[in-house]
Amino acid sequence: MKAAPFEYVRPSSLAEACAILASDEDARPIAGGQTLVPMMAMRLARPGKLVDISRLPELDGIKRDDDALSIGAAVRQAVAERSSEVARHLPLLSAALPWVGHQPTRNRGTLGGSVANADPAAEIPLVLVTLGGAVRAAGPGAEREIPAREFFEGLMATALEEGEIVSSLSFPIWGEDRVGVGFHEISARKSDFAYVSAAAQVALDEQGKCTRCVIGLGAVVPSPVYLAAASEAVASGVGVDDVRGVLEAEFSSLDIMTDSHATAAYRRRAALALTSRALDDALSQAGEA
Amino acid sequence: MEIKLKINGVERAIECDARTTLLDCLRDNFDLNGAHIGCEHGICGACTVLVDGEPSRACLMFAPQAEGYSITTIEGVTPAPGELSVIQDAFCEVHGMQCGYCTPGMILTAHALLASNPEPSREDIVEAISGNICRCTGYGQIIEAIALAAERLQGSNAPLAAGQGENAR
Prior knowledge:
The complex is a heterodimer.
Chain A: E1 7-9, H1 14-23, E2 27-30, H2 36-41, E3 49-52, E4 62-65, E5 68-72, H3 77-82, H4 84-89, H5 91-96, H6 103-106, H7 111-117, H8 123-131, E6 134-138, E7 144-147, H9 148-151, E8 152-154, E9 157-158, E10 165-172, E11 178-186, E12 196-204, E13 210-218, E14 225-226, H10 228-235, H11 240-252, H12 264-288
Parallel strand pairs in A: 1-3, 2-3
Antiparallel strand pairs in A: 4-5, 5-10, 6-7, 6-10, 8-9, 11-12, 12-13, 13-14
Chain B: E1 2-7, E2 10-15, H1 22-30, E3 48-51, E4 54-57, E5 70-72, H2 86-93, H3 103-116, H4 122-128, H5 140-155
Parallel strand pairs in B: 1-5
Antiparallel strand pairs in B: 1-2, 3-4, 3-5
Helix pairs in contact in B: 2-5
């Protein structure tokens, strides 16, 4: 359980980090390292050079950016969890963060690292996809923005090009007065990888009618999924009980994973239960707002 | 490569391979054997140390990544040589351990919890130690020990741990 030898560098600017990564195909960025270090200890990863990007000022900070909250890629999960800006503007991210690993890994793990790693069960990518946010990537060329729903391409595969790194994440802020969220997941034990996770966010008007809804599902297929049909149904007034049919129809178009932890049939049942619960929570929270 | 680490308030420089984990570095280069080697991939919590006061896995950090942070190990929480912190004392008193392998990690996690939340509920304590595996106790006495330490610290005028100094949040 010891990593293979590598060279460690800690550049002082993002440009320098990108130049090193672009010039050496065996170089990998490291921020919190909470996934990469165990992968290296098990020799599933063997980078020749580690480029420590965790302290780059360009990748730090949480700032309001018109209708979005922009979170630097190297912002640690524990920092976002304690952030009053995140609590105020991104209730869905606030609800999901306590499910990410456990406190000691959140103390070091970063938001950008979780997104770049693209584990199917990861909560932060699920929130980003559900809300329809964006990933900003820095690299040898100009910084570019990739919609989150196009960023995750499969099992630990993303739209990042060779030499590119995630620089920040953009989460849309909902301006409505009455917004509610729900987040549920099931795993073998606290802090372990989810078998299924579900996220929902809704907005209600003054009469309590749903005006906007997003529902997302994690860990059932290799990337987080935005459930467009069910989201639109709820936003157009379909009640929670009637939306189950829409959800079931939407699940039937997904090639749900079977692995050593859970069968596709189990995941399908759990997905229906958890999305319904997340939606219930979101609607009742918005109703009380 | 040469790296400089600040461990238990003292700056030290050491020559080691970049691939040396903070855990191996603490144990092999500094004889700080209180951080225990367990799973070595971030699951068990036996190697927990405080990084700027926050519990972190010493097995999930390469030593050069720890440069510039203040590292606290179990050896650094005692108020003076031969003495125990209030939390360590509470673990002894209610026997919050059996084999002792998870204990340094549990105690450091408890230090960080009580530094930021002096009056934790039982749920707060359970959540805080949820990343630390104990295979002996069933956790009952560990939770009891942390609750007792919290009660004593609330009623006392003493700092959380003299040795922890600037790491106390």
